[in-house]
Amino acid sequence: MPEDLYKSVRPMHAVSKGQLIALSTPWGQRGWFFQVWTNPIGWECVKITWKQCPRITDDFILNERVSCGDSWVAQEYECSFESLGRLRYSRHRHRGTINL
Fold first, then answer.
1. I need a surface site. Which of 1, 6, 9, 16 has the fewest CB within 10 A?
2. Structure confidence by residue, pLDDT tens digits, 46-73
3. pTM of the predicted model as reported, rounded to 2 decimal places
4. 44 is in which domain, residue-wise?
C-alpha cells in the first residue's frame, strides 16, 4: 500500500474504530511498514518465515539463493529489512545486475 493511501485511511479509524491489517514482506529499511515494524505502538506484529511454511522446501530456498542472492532471500522469505544497497539479483539467471 503506498504511503499516501495508508495515511488517507488512518483517519477513518477515528469514528469507525475499525481494524487495519497490513501483510507484506519488507522492501528495504524505508516507508511506513518499516516504521510500524520497528516502532509498533498500537500494532501487533507477527513474523512468519519460510521455515514455518511447510509448502516451501529447502531446495526451493537454495535455488532462490543461487538465483537472487542471500539478501533477497532474507528479505522475501525471512522477513528481514535489508539495506537497499545489498538487494540485487544474481548474474546467474539474469543478463545484468539490478541494484535497487
1. 16
2. 999 999 999 999 999 999 999 999 999 9
3. 0.71
4. 3-86
